[in-house]
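May I ask you for just one protein sequence along with its C-alpha cells in two labelled lines?

_____
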Amino acid sequence: MAIYTKNGDGGFTRLADGKGLSKSDVRMDAIGDIDELNCHLGALICQIDKELASNLQPIQSSLFVLGAHVASDSKEYLGNMKLISLQDIVAIEEMIDEIDAKLAPMRFFILPGGHPTIAAAQIARTVCRRAERSLIRWVQVEEKEDYATAIAYVNRLSDYLFMLCRYLHQSLDIPEIPWNSGK
C-alpha cells in the first residue's frame, strides 16, 4: 500500500471511518493536537527514568483512544474501545498527589527551562493545553456532550505535566527559575 494517495493535495482528508472533510476543520485540529501531544510525551519518555516513563505510557495509550474517538463516529470502527473514564482521571490525580507530597509548596511562578528534560516536559504541558482547547472547540461545534470526561482528563493531564516539571527540577537538582514580574 502506498503511503501517499494524493487525495490530501487539495486540502481534504478522510477520517478513520472514511468520512471526508477539510484539513482545516476543527476536528482535524483536535486530532492533530492530540497526536502532537502524544509525540511530545514519547520524546519526554526518552529522557526520563523508567518509573516516570511507566506513568506516561498508559497516558499515551489513552490519548490514542481519544484520538480514535475524535477521528470516527462509527461504532463499527471503534468496536469496544471505551472513551476516557473517570477512573483514568483518578489515576492522574493520584500521580499528581504522589508528586505533590514530595515537593515543597510553590512560592512563585516558574519560568520554563533550566534543563532540556524540564523544557521538554514544559513543551508537552503547553501542547496539552492546546490539545485541550482544540478538543473543546470541536466538542462545542459538534455538540458532543459525551466528551466532558475526556476534556477533564486532558485538563488534568496538563496539571500532571506541570507537577512533573516541578518534580524534575527537584530530582535533577535544578533550581526552579522564579518569574520576576518587575513589580
